[in-house]
Design goal:
Elements: E1 4-13, E2 32-40, E3 45-50, H1 68-83, H2 91-101, H3 106-124, H4 128-131, E4 139-141, E5 143-146, H5 151-163, E6 168-172, H6 177-191, E7 196-200, H7 208-219, E8 223-227, H8 233-242, E9 246-249, H9 256-264, E10 270-273, H10 275-278, H11 281-294, E11 297-300, H12 307-319, E12 358-359, E13 362-364, H13 377-382
Parallel strand pairs: 5-6, 6-7, 7-8, 8-9, 9-10, 10-11
Antiparallel strand pairs: 1-2, 2-3, 4-13, 12-13
Helix pairs in contact: 1-2, 1-3, 2-3, 5-6, 6-7, 7-8, 9-11
The chain binds magnesium ion.
């Protein structure tokens, strides 16, 4: 079997279409991610991607924010030396080795694991979703994320995305409470009843009372999900008992233990699952299988990944029956190959050679071996720093 021969990291910054902000982002710009490139003893190349952010963490300091540079250092100095010579197809062993080298740091481990899955799939001639147990869906309904912006701009963006086929919109909230309601009201008036509207407060509301008040006003315009308006489990549980809409955890749900705890506390109807936060595909699948057993649903979220991380999230979505909610998966595409102008577009270019297939508001899960994408190494060089 293929063994890991080299591990290289690349810090890559893509040009963005617009600023993308949320309540806790504090001006942290999107678009700088870390890529991991693994070469094996038999000449196979596997790619991983991760999206660490300084202002991204969990409730009560349970999880830390991080940076691309810190994550790179961790991989280069602590993880990579222990991975050399390891087989790429034994993911359980890979995690045990990484977990014994460094505690926590899911975003670093996710990138290394992703590259191993990509290489293992290529070595075996099967897509990653086959390695994860097999696909239950080929297409994933895309939700377009509207960052925090002025009401008019937010409504204009939502209408443009729907014109390009999007059937679900997520509105980032909790910086201006009047806008939180006004944008939902405006989009509902413009788009009618058929478009799914949901909100994501990113822990931004100061207290339960404010979150309940704003959520109840938004409910009049038919929102489907209220995502992480507050940080704490008890806050979410109290809010959930006082509103009608389903409550989703994101920042407070990283591991399967978190999902179990939140479920036990009666704090959630849904949670947001993705590869980086969970610490890799295998751990994300564990949470997704647990959700299925508990009767919970999840979406596949993320942090506006480039094409590599986006492909990994699509393979994750493919194998989980519980991942049945519209998912914020970008329509990443190399310059000149994009099929939309606004819908799912956060960057003006990408480091993969082809656009993801998008039709009827859905992204198609790649079916080629590994992650099913090809990385343009000239682009990686061009955008590296
Ligand atoms: Mg979120």
């Amino acid at each position: 079997m293929s063994k890991i021969e080299t591990i290289n990291t690349h810090k890559v910054t893509l040009p963005t279409r617009r600023k993308h902000e949320w309540a806790s982002s504090v001006g942290d710009p999107i678009g700088t991610h870390l890529l991991v490139e693994i070469r094996t003893s038999d000449g196979i190349v596997g790619w991983g991607e991760t999206t660490p952010m300084a202002t991204w963490g969990g409730v009560g300091g349970r999880y830390d924010g991080s940076t691309v540079d810190a994550t790179r250092n961790l991989i280069d100095d602590y993880l990579a030396p222990r991975m050399l010579g390891e087989p790429v197809d034994n993911i359980v062993r890979l995690h045990r080795t990484m977990d014994s080298a460094v505690k926590g740091n899911t975003y670093a481990k996710a990138a290394v694991e992703m590259a191993c899955y990509d290489a293992a799939g290529k070595a075996l001639g099967v897509p990653v979703h086959t390695l994860l147990g097999g696909a239950v869906r080929q297409n994933v309904r895309a939700c377009h994320s509207i960052g925090i912006m002025a009401q008019d701009a937010a409504i204009e963006e939502g209408v443009a995305a729907v014109r390009e086929g999007i059937t679900s919109l997520k509105i980032k909230t909790a910086r201006n409470y009047a806008d939180d309601v006004g944008i939902v009201r405006g989009l509902r008036a413009e788009l009618g009843e058929d478009v799914d509207l949901r909100v994501d407060g990113n822990e931004g509301y100061p207290d339960v009372a404010t979150a309940v008040r704003v959520t109840r006003e938004q409910e009049e315009f038919g929102i489907s999900i209220c995502e992480q308006p507050l940080a704490s489990d008890t806050g979410l549980a109290e809010l959930r008992s006082r509103v009608n809409v389903g409550v989703m955890a994101d920042e407070s749900a990283w591991s399967v233990s978190d999902v179990a705890r939140l479920n036990h506390a009666g704090a959630i109807d849904y949670f947001s699952l993705y590869v980086t936060k969970a610490g890799g595909l295998m751990k994300a699948v564990t949470s997704g299988r647990f959700a299925e057993a508990m009767g919970l649903s999840c979406d596949i979220g993320g942090s506006v990944e480039f094409g590599i991380g986006n492909a990994a999230n699509l393979h994750l979505a493919a194998v989980l029956p519980a991942a049945n909610l519209p998912s914020v998966l970008p329509l990443t595409a190399p310059e000149g190959a994009a099929t939309t102008k606004v819908a799912g577009r956060y960057y003006m270019d990408d480091i993969v050679t082809q656009a993801f297939r998008y039709a009827d508001g859905c992204l198609t899960v790649p079916s080629e071996p590994g992650l099913g994408i090809e990385v343009d190494t000239d682009k990686v060089r061009k955008y590296s720093s």
